[in-house]
Each structure stands twice: as structure tokens, then as C-alpha cells.
Amino acid sequence: MRIVLPEALRELAGGRAVVEVGVAGGTSEVGGVLGALSASHPGLYDRLMTEQGALRPHVNIFVDGENIRFTGGLGTLAGAGSEILVLPSISGG
Predict the structure, then answer these.
(1) Residue 93 counted as domain residue
(2) What residue numbers bound the domain in which 41 lies?
(3) Count of Cβ atoms closer than 10 Å to residue 86 Cβ
(4) 66: β partners
(5) pTM value > 0.70
């Protein structure tokens, strides 16, 4: 699976904009994919998730163009060829 990271998080992934994550079986829940990502890139998981294991409110994750907040949250399935896009919320006044 391809995980596309915003500029602000690329430093935690060795400067890469795209990180490939392999998951056994080819399909996994987004929460599992993020766990696998944290194993290879320490610190990244903490920027995306709370201490309770929930997605941080300012982080949006899309699987193949669909926001996981509307498709099952961290339980949303992602296939071997899926693209997972991480986007921080933008706010201001």
C-alpha cells in the first residue's frame, strides 16, 4: 500500500513523500496499516493517533479518495493496491 504524507510529516519518514507498507494478506484495516507504518518510522504514529488509539481530530485520512471518517474509520479496509493519503486539517480565520 502507498501512504502519501504531507510535507509536515515527511521528516519522520526519511524525507519521503510516499511510503510503501506491506501488509500480510494484501488487505488490512487502516488502523493496522498505520501500526505497520509506525514500526518502520518511529514517531509518525504519535503524530497521527492519540494516546487512546484514536485518529487525531486535525488529521484526515483518505483511502482511494474516500475519507475514512465516513467509511468505517480506522476499520476501513485498504487493499494491496490502495493509496492512503494523510492530510492535516487547515483552519484559520
Answers:
(1) no
(2) 2-88
(3) 20
(4) 63
(5) yes
d(CA 61, CA 86): 5
* pLDDT exceeds cutoff 60 at 93: no
In degrees, rounded to 5, the angle at the alpha carbon of residue 35 between the alpha carbons of residues 66 and 4 is 45
Is it the case that residue 24 has pLDDT exceeding 80? no
The CATH number covering residue 58 comes to 3.10.20.30
Domain count, the chain: 1
Q: Is the pLDDT of residue 91 over 80?
A: no
Dihedral angle over CA of 10, 11, 12, 17, nearest 10: 20
- Output helix, strand, coil percentages for the chain, rounded to the nearest 5: 30, 25, 40
Share of the chain above pLDDT 70, in %: 97
How many angstroms separate the Cα of 43 from the Cα of each of 33, 64, 71?
Answer: 15, 24, 26
